[in-house]
Design brief:
1 helix, mainly beta, elongated, single chain, 3-stranded antiparallel sheet
Amino acid sequence: MARLCLPDGAVRGIDIQGAQTGATTAYTAGRDGTVTVDNPQHERALRDAGAFSANLGGLPRGGYRCGACGFAAYVTTCSRCGGTCEKET
């Protein structure tokens, strides 16, 4: 299953016609502008039309938590209070 952004911010939906059956599947972007595709042929067709992967940076793998104020950060020095942050698991 893939999450894709449609090729242009103005595009809110796209129809893909199946090669074997001729049935049309409509993909409509959600509020975040992405569509979820579970058919590999449809994914290939959407990519050919200009769609691209939605989460190019991937998922965050954890960060740091300040021992003094509890602020969550991605660096070891807290940007809120200047304290030292420890790695979260």
